[in-house]
Amino acid sequence: MARPRKTAIKLAPPPESESTTHVAKHRRVFDYLHSGIQSGQLKPGDRLPSEAELGRLFDASRITVAKAVLDLQRMGLVTRRPGAGTHVLAQHSAAGRSFGLLIPELGLTEIFEPICHGMMRSPVARPDALLWGNASNSVRESAKEAEQMLQSFIVQKVDGVFFAPLELIGEKDAANRRIARSLERAQIPVVLLDRCYMPYPDRSSHDLVGVDNRRAGYMATAHLLAMGVRRLVFLGEANVASTVDARITGFHEALRSFGVAPDRDPAWRGSPQDEEFVRRMIDTAAPEGIICANDLTAARLMQTLLAFGVRIPEEVRIVGMDDVKYASLLPVPLTTIHQDCVGIGTVAMATMLERLEHPELPVRDVLVPTRLVVRRSCGAALTEEPFDSL
Predict the structure, then answer these.
(1) What is the pLDDT of residue 147?
(2) Are 194 and 166 in contact (CB under 8 A)?
(3) Is the CA virtual torsion 307, 308, 314, 318 positive or negative?
(4) pLDDT higher for 130 or 270?
């Protein structure tokens, strides 16, 4: 094992060019250090310059520098020790494999962090290494950053990539296909997380681990229908993943099963933070209940409706999907469909290892069970006990 150097290595100042002036500072710091590690200028055991030194070098704050160094740590390239600084790690040993986590929305979508933790805690993963990609804080930048990280994984010759396809941007389909083609050309096995990047009924040639979203949509809708709620709408944002389309399918199937035939399409697409859009949906559909595509949509809708003075659940009942960690902490605790994100991560790792051992297996959809979690927002307790008791 390489012995850490006590003295930080000196790096040449970063070159300035017109192309780098428009790049986010944390990305410039990351690219500079990452390039030094990949080129061998920074060797295993070398101590990186301090955050203060890097801040002066790039005219950046310590928070910006720390974010870049954290991304390197997530990739398994450096280790940080209190009082000892940050040192370059040796490449993973031959006894284990390395896998890239290509999750552009890691910092934007709640479900992916616990999925990653499930992978790391998987008993079948050791001594395999998980290289965390750069978590984006911007939907607009997520596609560009994903493709940059992809090239890093290809250069490092990872043994496989866990890929959560992009959503919420207009060019998501083209970007997802470019990423998939690059991985296929590099002959790197892929396990898709949560969703396929190809629209139904097309199917990619890669294994997928997630939940049965059609069933989740049915369960959420049937819960309100069983309580006698009949005027229902489904709310999802534009440019979302195919998982939402599957949830809408389950929503429609539940309506048919209960003999509910709306006069107009009850599936609405738009931002729950757009007050004009939400008012139009409420005035047009007069819903008694709203099924939301996910908990984030439900939380934002709840905020908008409460600002309008709408009482939840007395006037409008809300059900979300995912059961993220803040779902029970909303102003009105959210009824939702729980998906076992840690379990998805564990199963994803097992699926990847099985694919590497048996490449001849057919492509699979591996679905982790879901369950309904009942809280105040659906109004289930309104006829059973006083509203304030929950």
Answers:
(1) 85
(2) no
(3) negative
(4) 270
Task: Check if the beta carbon of residue 251 is closer than 8 Å to that of residue 218.
Answer: yes
The backbone torsions φ and ψ at residue 62, rounded to the nearest 5 degrees and listed phi first, read -65, -30
Token pair for 24: 């986010």
**Radius of gyration over alpha carbons of the chain, in Å?**
24
191 with 348: CB under 8 angstroms?
yes
Kindly report, residue by residue over 166-185, the tens digit of the pLDDT: 886 778 888 899 999 999 99
- Report whether 309 contacts 279 (CB < 8 A): no
Closest to 267 in 3D by CA, of 243, 292, 242: 292
Cα–Cα dist 10/69, whole Å: 16
Dist CA 111 CA 109 (whole Å): 6
Q: Is the pLDDT of residue 18 over 70?
A: no
Q: Say if strands 370-373 and 335-339 run parallel, antiparallel, or are unpaired.
A: antiparallel
Report the distance separating Cα 333 and Cα 302, nearest Å. 10
pTM of the predicted model, to two decimals?
0.73
Give pLDDT, residue 136.
54
Whole-angstrom Cα distance, residue 194 to residue 103?
11
Q: Quick one: which of 172, 163, 176 has its CA closest to 101?
A: 163
Per-residue tokens: 110: 């709640």
Alpha carbons 132 and 164: distance in angstroms, whole number: 13
Q: Which two tokens stand for residue 215?
A: 């069933």
CA–CA gap between residue 347 and residue 344 (Å, rounded): 5
- The model's pLDDT over 252-265, given as tens digits with 9 standing for 90+, comes to 999 999 999 999 99
Nearest partner of 175 among 147, 195, 154, judged by Cα: 147
CB-CB contact of 323 with 336 (8 Å) = yes
* Closest residue by Cα to residue 8 from 38, 52, 50, 39: 50
At position 140, the amino acid (one-letter code) is: R
Please check whether residue 338 is in contact with residue 370, taking contact to mean a CB–CB distance below 8 angstroms.
Answer: yes
Decide if 33 contacts 8 (C-beta within 8 A).
Answer: no
What is the rounded CA–CA span in Å between residue 176 and residue 165? 6
**Which residues are CB-neighbours of 370 under 8 A, at least 6 positions away?**
211, 212, 215, 216, 219, 337, 338, 339, 340
| DSSP sequence for 256-288 | HHTT---SS--EEES-TT-HHHHHHHHHHH--S
